[in-house]
């Protein structure tokens, strides 16, 4: 469920095609909040696809372990390298805290996957100076923009 009541709608503009292309071009490292080991879930196959396209993926999940050949961090603030994009695969009610954490670690973009967006979270991120993308899949958009084949063309590990 998303929070898009009039009091929490973001007044910032929707990202243009050029904005999206710039985000992909300037980004190297993507922290995936809610990364999953379940190959049938978008929180697994989308970051796996992005990794196959050359992005550094840092999985974030309180379960820990390893995904995509990378150690899973339990929280964003455990990252020891700069994060360009925080890719969110968590329920909308967790968005505000994720947005605050993303701002605190100096991320440049918060990308809320479809169904994860929250007006409050988007407003928090935008107020902190982060670019905010909502209602678009980071992997599918990469393919739609012609930057790669899209996540449906990548085999799971």
Could you please describe the fold and organization of this structure?
The protein has 5 helices and 7 strands, in the order αβαββββαβαβα. It has helices at residues 17-26, 42-52, 95-105, 119-127, 138-144; strands spanning 29-33, 56-60, 66-67, 70-71, 85-88, 109-112, 131-134. α4 links the parallel β6 (109-112) and β7 (131-134).
Q: What can be said about this structure in brief?
A:
Helix content is 31%, strand content 17%. The protein has 157 residues and is α/β, with parallel strands linked by helices.
SSE succession: HEHEEEEHEHEH
Class computed from helices, strands and strand pairing: alpha/beta
* Alpha carbon gap, first and last residue: 30 Å
Kindly identify the CATH topology: Rossmann fold
List keywords for this structure.
single chain, two-stranded antiparallel sheet, 157 residues, alpha/beta, Rossmann fold, 7 strands, 5 helices, 5-stranded parallel beta sheet, globular
Topology:
Elements: H1 17-26, E1 29-33, H2 42-52, E2 56-60, E3 66-67, E4 70-71, E5 85-88, H3 95-105, E6 109-112, H4 119-127, E7 131-134, H5 138-144
Parallel strand pairs: 1-2, 1-5, 5-6, 6-7
Antiparallel strand pairs: 3-4
């Amino acid at each position: 469920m998303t929070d898009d009541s009039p009091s929490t709608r973001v007044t910032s503009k929707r990202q243009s095609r050029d904005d999206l292309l710039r985000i992909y071009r300037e980004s190297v490292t993507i922290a995936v909040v809610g990364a999953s080991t379940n190959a049938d879930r978008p929180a697994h196959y989308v970051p796996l696809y992005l990794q196959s396209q050359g992005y550094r993926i840092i999985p974030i999940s309180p379960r820990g372990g390893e995904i995509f050949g990378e150690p899973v961090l339990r929280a964003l603030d455990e990252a020891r390298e700069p994060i360009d994009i925080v890719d969110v695969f968590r329920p909308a009610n967790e968005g505000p805290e994720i947005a605050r954490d993303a701002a605190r670690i100096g991320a440049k973009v918060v990308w809320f996957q479809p169904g994860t967006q929250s007006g409050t979270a988007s407003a928090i991120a935008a107020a902190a100076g982060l670019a905010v993308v909502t209602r678009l899949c980071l992997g599918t958009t990469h393919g739609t923009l012609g930057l790669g084949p899209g996540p449906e063309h990548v085999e799971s590990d």
